[in-house]
Design goal:
36% helix, single chain, 2 domains, alpha/beta, 15 strands, Rossmann fold
Length: 351
């Protein structure tokens, strides 16, 4: 699990429940089991005989294209350097037409494994190491995140999602329950989704990623997300859902949140999760604590234009996946802040 905007790596198990995901994959996908990253490095010596590439490899400073090569090379995977003996591109080329899903070419991958095993046997080795860097929000999962964004509605949105097996880690859930209790959203002890909760609405306000090179629509949304423009949208849904507490998931500066609180004065009680100490090093953990709370909300307002058309912020979409697949909450318990009602009726989902 990486932090794209800053140096550093957050281990997957720190924010998601790795054993729960493995149990689900064993049951639903038929895998035999799992191995830790530490065990993998110890048993392989940090050497990969054959790297099956599903996309270009980002090495922190350079991008290595998805291509076949017999050149031995050292590549960085998060904070670990691996010696790669051969590379083969196994990205499917069947899904083009502007909707690049990065599917895996299964037949080519099978061929790669067979070749690696044959080479190892010929050299008298007892094992072969084949690496596949799993882009688990690509392929079918990417189609579910953006079911109509690229102009083509993919049937993969109706398949069982990997998010069925995704849960936040125990530490994230413990922190989320503690914060929710501090904010008056949870009474008593226990998990956030099991304790006695007070009804509340959650909203994602995106304010911090414009430095990454904003698309034109992001610039428009940035203006729509200003407190004076965002507050009327919030008041509408708070009134429609008859909710008086508002949890804000955001990376906005404190003064922006205060301005939004002033705009909503008399409408709802606005609460926010206190920041974890450590700055950027805890950025992913802080985000996931806020996502865990938003995943349990009675109603969630995403920062974006809708499911079918337009741009939606990724943290909003990932929270939606948790709500729909992990928590089994109805789709109608969500809405998109900027869904154009003149085109898609007044449902807030962008249909």
């Amino acid at each position: 699990m990486c932090t794209p905007q800053f140096e550093g790596t957050t281990p997957f198990g720190d924010i998601f429940d790795w054993p729960a995901l493995v149990d689900w994959l064993v049951e639903a996908r038929g895998i035999r089991g799992q191995i830790s990253w530490k065990q993998f490095l110890e048993q392989t010596g940090g050497v990969v005989d054959m790297l099956a590439m599903q996309a270009e490899h980002w090495d922190g400073n350079t991008r290595l294209p998805c291509a076949d090569s017999e050149e031995e090379i050292t590549l960085r995977f998060y904070q670990t350097y691996m010696q790669v003996r051969q590379r083969v591109c196994v990205q499917s080329t069947e899904h083009g037409q502007g909707f690049e899903l990065r599917f895996l070419d299964g037949a080519r991958f099978e061929e790669v494994i067979g070749r690696a095993v044959s080479t190892a046997k010929a050299a008298g080795k007892s094992h072969a190491t084949v690496g596949l860097y799993l882009y688990w929000i690509e392929g079918a999962e990417r189609a579910r995140l953006h079911p109509g964004r690229y102009g083509l509605l993919s049937s993969h949105v109706f398949y069982t999602s990997m998010w069925r097996g995704m849960r936040f880690s125990p530490k994230i859930l413990q922190r989320a329950a503690l914060v929710a209790k501090q904010l008056g959203l949870l009474e008593g002890r226990g998990r956030l989704t099991e304790g006695t909760r007070k009804p509340f609405m959650a909203v994602h306000l995106r304010k911090g990623d414009l430095l990454t090179g904003p698309a034109p629509r992001r610039l428009v949304q940035a203006e729509l997300g200003e407190p004076q423009n965002f507050a009327p949208v919030l008041r509408r849904y708070l009134r429609e859902k008859n909710l008086e507490r508002l949890f804000v998931m955001t990376n906005a500066r404190p003064e922006v949140v205060q301005r939004l609180r002033e705009e909503l004065n008399g409408t709802a009680e606005l609460v926010q999760a206190p920041m974890l100490k450590g700055g950027h090093i805890n950025g992913q953990r802080q985000l996931c604590v806020e996502m865990a709370i938003a995943s349990a909300a009675d109603f969630f307002l995403l920062f974006g234009d809708g499911l079918i058309q337009g741009y939606v912020s990724k943290p909003s979409l990932l929270t939606l996946q948790m709500r729909l697949h992990a928590e089994s909450l109805p789709l109608e318990s969500n809405a998109f802040a900027f869904a154009p009602s003149e085109f898609f009726a007044n449902d807030g989902l962008g249909f």
